[in-house]
Amino acid sequence: MKVSITSGSAEGPTKLNAFDNALLDAGIGDINLIKVSSIIPQDTKIIELPEFKAGDMVNCVLSYVTSDREGDLISAVIAVAMSDDFGCVVEHSGINKEPAEVKKEAVAMVKYMMEIRGRPIKEIMIANKSHIVKYWGAAVAALVFLG
């Protein structure tokens, strides 16, 4: 199995358009995202985000946040923890929190997920994106499954 981690942010004239534009910024705007929960199979390789064919159906763990309040600081985070057996993924977001704090919270959650499963962590990876809202803003972070 292969996965990629990506993130993006954007503005738009509406909430939906801002979200769509953030997906485009992350490189996953022209595919159909199928939201899945947070377990990565054993021996999964994390690779660079490939080019997709428009309309592809792609499983993902997706974090997103939107706001229409000018000046809001929005952040979306994906935190991945891998063990020898498998990995766990956390999606997390925040509004008007320091991006470092949102990342710290996501890491704490994914560490807990591994701890409760009795799995020692070999590696932690994070994708995050923050954005200061002008009109309608969106930030996304995703782990996409590539098969």
Molecular structure report:
It is a single chain. By secondary structure, the protein is α+β, with helices and mostly antiparallel strands. It has a single domain (2-145), classed as Pyruvoyl-Dependent Histidine Decarboxylase, subunit B (Pyruvoyl-Dependent Histidine Decarboxylase, Chain B, 3-Layer(bba) Sandwich). It is 20% helix and 47% strand. It has a 5-stranded mixed sheet with strand order 2-5-9-1-4. Strand 6 and strand 7 (87-95) form a beta hairpin. It starts with a strand and ends with a strand.
Salient structural properties:
5-stranded mixed sheet, 4-stranded antiparallel sheet, 147 residues
Short précis:
The protein has 147 residues and is an alpha+beta fold.
List the topology elements:
Layout: E1 2-12, H1 15-26, E2 32-35, E3 39-40, E4 45-46, E5 57-67, E6 73-82, E7 87-95, H2 99-116, E8 123-132, E9 136-145
Parallel strand pairs: 1-4, 2-5
Antiparallel strand pairs: 1-9, 3-7, 5-9, 6-7, 6-8
| Shape type | flat
CATH class: Alpha Beta
Largest sheet: number of strands, sense, barrel closure: 5 strands, mixed
Instruction: Provide the CATH topology.
Output: Pyruvoyl-Dependent Histidine Decarboxylase, Chain B
The class by helix and strand makeup works out as alpha+beta
State the helix count. Answer: 2
* Name of the CATH homologous superfamily: Pyruvoyl-Dependent Histidine Decarboxylase, subunit B
Spatially, the strands of the biggest sheet line up as: 2-5-9-1-4
